[in-house]
Amino acid sequence: MRLSVQEQPFDAGAELNAFTAGVSGAGAVVSFTGIVRDLSGTLRAMEIEHYPGMTQSAISAIMDEAMTRWSLSDALVIHRYGALKPGAQIMMVATASAHRLAAFEAAEFLMDYLKSRAPFWKKEIGLDGAEWVAAKDEDEAALTRW
Amino acid sequence: MRLSVQEQPFDAGAELNAFTAGVSGAGAVVSFTGIVRDLSGTLRAMEIEHYPGMTQSAISAIMDEAMTRWSLSDALVIHRYGALKPGAQIMMVATASAHRLAAFEAAEFLMDYLKSRAPFWKKEIGLDGAEWVAAKDEDEAALTRW
Amino acid sequence: MVDVLYFAWVRERIGLPRETLATNAATVTDLIAELSAREERYALAFSDLKSLRVALDQKLSSFDAPLSGVREVAFFPPMTGG
Amino acid sequence: MVDVLYFAWVRERIGLPRETLATNAATVTDLIAELSAREERYALAFSDLKSLRVALDQKLSSFDAPLSGVREVAFFPPMTGG
User: What is the ipTM of this complex?
Assistant: First the structure.
């Protein structure tokens, strides 16, 4: 199990390969990569603030729960903070399991919890000003699935 | 949209990076990698037979349906055939979408259809003999979800 | 004339991957009856239709589908891809 | 003494990321009342509790939770990670 909260970019492909090489006995590896979108064409940067003391412990707790609940072979979370350009990769999750359903479900579970329970806040810096991204009701609702 | 049915190995990380670099406007990329498992510790190879004429058209049709149904930005399927060693990567799927739920669902849909509707057959070559892998009822049942 | 293809254990039981046949079979079921009557190895391969699938011109089909105009028939067990 | 941390727009409205306070507040709600009475910028930041979350010693908590023994209180809007 590996968790990295970092400012610098990561190489999702290299991370996926290292993760896959490190699991033995898994038949299924699922990865998710989140990317900064520029919906309006006016985004200069996405600034991600976090709560350093809490980030590690909150995400570790979520990962521990996923490992146990889906009997995962392994799990990986990388999440960046700081100023990210449109098209930049914000974060990634990877899960490894004996079976595909467990790997998919655990990855979705991790994503749903990272969205609403890990202490990150996004601010969109546009050409016309800056705005905090509001939490979506649907993200909060997604948690009821688990 | 890219589909490759091939005998030679592929580099899942490099494929994921190339796929992600090729999509614009997507906020979410999901990948799945399937790996040869050796449950009993006696597997020498997994031999994958396919129906060359039908494989391309069957998988293309499944990918077209996924692209439309989830408004994907892009989709990728790589599937190997021939003799694979334990730990070898059999296949991968990647999906890109504006939102994470669509990317996850489309990847699961593609996997469920590849399992039961793409013309591949697996044979386990063990130390004590060879056996065709039987289709699982649960894989057929998984299709009812879509 | 129709090309008949066999995959996986169907191929192994029948002992060949493909053959070209002259047949007047109207449906897949008729073709199976014709082949099964021919030799024991066919009868064995076709003994349990529930464990068989058929594709006509590379599209999954049903056993009661007509063969008229079909150029390629393939028999195989349920797929195990992914 | 308790460390109080502010994040995202809560930090911006209050105008500082953290401060150390002497307080006798029994609960988070009491602490919010105390701060809001102090200055307008606090009252503004805490005006809509539904849009606020609180963590006590780095664990998500509720507004009626007791502060006894707590060393770090953090206020922030709903998280938007992932």
Answer: 0.95
